[in-house]
Amino acid sequence: MTGKSPYIALLLAVLLGAGAWLVSRAPNQTQDTSPTDGPVPPGQVAFLINPADVMTITRNAPNTTEQSVRRQSDGRWLFDMPGGGAWPTDSQAIATFLRTHYETRATGAVDLSDTLGPDAIVLRFTTADGDVTVHLATAPIGGNRLITVQRNNSTPRTALVSARFAAELVDTGLIAYRLDQALPGMGRDVSRITIADAHATLSLARIGGQWMLQQPIIAPTDRPAVDALLDALAQITVAEFRNTQSADTKDIASLLKDGLAVSVERDLRTFDQADAQAEPRIETRRRTLQIGAAFDPAAHLFYAMASEGTDASNVQMLVNTRELDFAHILDPMQYIARTPVVVRPETVHTLVFIPAPPAAQVRYVRNITGWEIRDDTDALRQVLTADESQALDALLRQLAAPATPVRLQAQSDAFLMIELLDREGAPLTRIAIEPGSGAQHVRAHGVEYQLQQPLPPLVTTYFPRQ
Q1: What is the mean pLDDT of residues 187-210?
Q2: pLDDT of residue 248
Q3: SS3 assignment for 268-336
Q4: Which of 115, 202, 263, 306 is the most exposed place for a label (fewest CB within 10 A)?
Q5: What is the DSSP-derived secondary structure letter of residue 349?
């Protein structure tokens, strides 16, 4: 053995010892090295659990209903409702609770004369390795709390720990994690919304980052108006979860009759954890809220029922709808785009004027300096003058300027259609000018608009002679 060998051996021993110490401190370590019998001595581990292994948490207390939350495969936690069904929780708060208390040490010596008392709280943590059951005294002892911990069928051990241990579950319970949004997860990033009552249906969809009206007509929308609707729906809150056996909710169908049904869909991109090469899948989550009869109109409280996906179990509640405008929520005119043309004028490459027969159509194509007229074969027929090109630019700016939506208007015979195309020849939109509409009215995407100014001679020259 060389002179350096003892030093190398010593260094390896130190490194191995340090590694073992670090492993013993890791959050996923669930083995307790303290004595296995009797009260837990001060400084020793009293409660130890791996947060990633916990699948359910259950709370029982005297004279109260059992409360439980369970982890989903996607990491979300759901609260099991007493009357059936489940409700989303603040999953991050539950994860924080588990990370905070995964290793709790005894803070003092146990006085064998101390007892948990008749009103002890029982928490059960279910993991892949079995259950960890904790009994907690509700009354602190000088800033500490008496608990007993039992892992599976082992002998329970008593310990004195900080009163902060699981304090939120002692004082309020797992219901503190329940979200108070009537449409949990509702935000401006949802994918589709459908709102309906017995007489009308309004449907909106986010396509390519832009909101489009889908029903009763397909049309572009006014983004601020849609954002206001999304915000109002997100602010519907649960005032009270109702027991399904309550006298006033036994006949929930009659309370919801002729009410408002709100359906929200969110498309989520999911990945196969077992196959890193697999293409992502799109998972659609749907949540429905039915708002029925008024419970207290002055307080904006209404009976409601919520469900997620195709789950037959529903959650009954009272909701606060203070921010919801029932009078106009189903009016499509509230959400229609405020301009006949919703694209930027400079993105329009071709304008095709299509008058009623026998007049011939005119095809204007943008060039480097202005506009020119080309025939159907794209052959050049005429280069417009600077004034004529400016007139076309002015028309585009006018059609893209704010205008007043007047009414929904089904398609009818028009004496002039103006088709807008992009550089690849794809249609952007179509403007219709119809008999009797006047020089300040146009129709676009099924909506009649009143312009701020009359149309220019470039268009009015096509008007029928009186």
Answers
A1: 95
A2: 57
A3: EEECCCCCCCCCCEEEEEEEEEEEEEEEEHHHCEEEEEEEECCCCCCEEEEEECCCCCCCCCCCHHHCE
A4: 115
A5: -
